[in-house]
Amino acid sequence: MNQPLLPEIARDDAMTTQDYAYRRLRNAIMVGALKPGTSLTFRGLAGQLGLSATPVREALRRLSSENAIEVLENRRLQVPRMTPGRFEELVQLRIVLETHAATRAFPYISDKAIDGLTALDDRMDAALARGDLDGLTRMNQEFHKRLYGLNPDAAAIPLIESLWLQLGPFQRQVIEDIDSIAGADHHKEMLAALRERALQELCAAIRADVHDGSIRAGRAMLHGADPA
Questions:
Q1: Could you tell me the pTM of the whole model?
Q2: Mind listing the UniProt keywords for this protein, alphabetically (predicted)?
Q3: How many domains are there within the chain?
Q4: Which of 27, 47, 185, 228 has the fewest CB atoms below 10 angstroms from its CB?
């Protein structure tokens, strides 16, 4: 069985083989390099990672506990398929947690932080223009994480990342149809709200970003029509 290619990640000398296997597989799932329903094998993944089966097995165990990998009958491994009910649960949780995280980060907003987010948004525009969906996905997550991380006690970020992880493979399928997510640039709306120090407008822009970037197009893919 041919395994899909896993995007490279930075690896330093302090990273153990188990951490490397976990982080590289986690990144591949989060950016959608592994599509829903993809079957995985220990041998195939170990060969691609250049590792023995032991760290790969441990990485897959951790990812299974995070609901990012399914263990099926006969110990077969698979990237979970998306269902309408699971999708609705995940995206509604995204809205609740991300508006909460933005609200908690709001008192720590600074002009310097806004400038950094603006520069990152410009790089996202460039990635979109050249069709770099991997880069676009990573930078989109970085944009949100950097905003929420302004709160020094940002306990919600690991929970939000768990949702991104579970949505990643399906979300990538959604954004491959660029026309389906075309429209207002809600990151620009978020930046404008940050400059105005307008919390309600910031949360409204986050809700709109999730709706237009995930919910509207995701529902259309799952149901075969645009429910808007």
A1: 0.88
A2: DNA-binding, Transcription, Transcription regulation
A3: 2
A4: 228
